[in-house]
Specification:
- With 558 residues, this protein is α/β, with parallel strands linked by helices.
- The chain is 37% helix and 19% strand.
- The protein has 20 helices and 25 strands.
- It is globular, with a radius of gyration of 23 Å.
Amino acid sequence: MSYKSDIEIAREANKKPIQEIGAKLGISSDDLLPYGHDKAKVSQDFINSVQDREDGKLILVTAINPTPAGEGKTTTTVGLGDGLNRIGKNAMICIREASLGPNFGMKGGAAGGGYAQVVPMEEMNLHFTGDFHAITSAHSLLSAMIDNHIYWGNEQEIDTRRVAWRRVVDMNDRALRQITASLGGVSNGFPREAGFDITVASEVMAILCLANDLKDLEKRLGDIIVAYRRDKTPVYCRDIKAEGAMTVLLKDAMQPNLVQTLENNPAFVHGGPFANIAHGCNSVIATKTALKVADYVVTEAGFGADLGAEKFMNIKCRKAGIAPSAVVLVATVRAMKMNGGVAKADLGAENVDAVKAGCANLGRHIENVKSFGVPVVVAINHFVTDTDDEVQAVKDYCGEHGVEAILSRHWELGSDGSAPLAEKVVEIVEGGSANFSPIYPDEMPLFEKIETIAKRIYRADEVLADNKIRNQLKEWEAAGYGNLPVCMAKTQYSFSTDPTLRGAPTGHSVPVREVRLSAGAGFIVVVCGEIMTMPGLPRKPAAETICLNDAGEIEGLF
């Protein structure tokens, strides 16, 4: 049986004017800045006006480690939001914006899938409301002002060997990872080594996603450490006098974007840091606003729970003063089989033994999420090739680990297929069993925070870091940054730093290659193993098959 593609389904959506979607949340048309008919930004005036309201309940959707078989975390997030509305709850979803890098790389576009999608799908996966362009521009402005400051006399006495601010572009481009800048003679400045990260790894992106308002945004931008002097004292963005102009560029980007699901339920899509190289959560301002206008807010954290959920709990919740009432852990029978050793080409054949073998990865994530004091339900994202025995094997395994697994058919049936999951989530939330707490305190030394995550979440035996890295962490502690959380940059495919090591490995080590202080965002980035902050394109990038058809419609976005 053939099924329509995501883009075909999205194209057939019966979208309502965005003013009608805003009205569901009590947002008047005067408080919406429309971008066409089906998307709009929400004004800061409206956000300010709802701050005295009681918060709704926050549900986090996370997943097992991703595999080529697919897990469908965003699809489940959208499906659960629709399901909650279907059973009579006032619910909305909060997800991240898509980066052009993976859209044209390996992943293709993504805003959910099947009959659990957010629309307009094409615009969301391309330029949307221009937020990422604004972030790239603000970041680039600071880059230009640093080099310009050095060129015109270097009043701050920046050591050009210690410029810490890399450039960014929202594209996968491995050729830019390490470059030499300012070649070509005296008029072009002083030659130095530099490099590019992808925009979603920019500290500006992290700051926008963690800031509470424009005033907080400007302060955080000013706190960015851009370079060091010869005496190793830091030079801040505010020393270069760039934070004001950067804030101007980000003024509109700070406002959450309102769109809708295929079932015309409201969704905020705002911010987009990667979870493997950044903190992987949508913006604080979107989430906190949603909690003021909806009784249930469903949000997601990137990649598997070892990355996205860990950072959601230890960074976003800590910084924003929020806490989840329940966690939905997404798994698929296909991914269990792949974790159990089955090749992708053979996933269509029933293999209950492989499902049971692969469930170790799921079990590890269940234990980890429970360690934060939050109740867990497993969502089995249904594929049409799943057999009853395979599904039952996952349910039985979860039962043995003290959680319930619910089969959810939102991809195929929309909210009709996710209603059982929604009912279970409401039951858990109304049970009030959540007792959330991060897994390490602020005052713990930085290296111990890294070890805590490596040993408790990844189940590593040790963290490998040379004296240069350990001494750098101690210097930051002495400078007053010891209370910051740590943001682990690690492969998403494994609990270890080896992307080929599936399942639930133990006895491995976590090598730390580099540490970066993100003083404005308020965390320490810990680069582990071979992870790159500028991805490259695969051998056959998705861009090769993205085009316009004869009707002028976009083809190739998944």
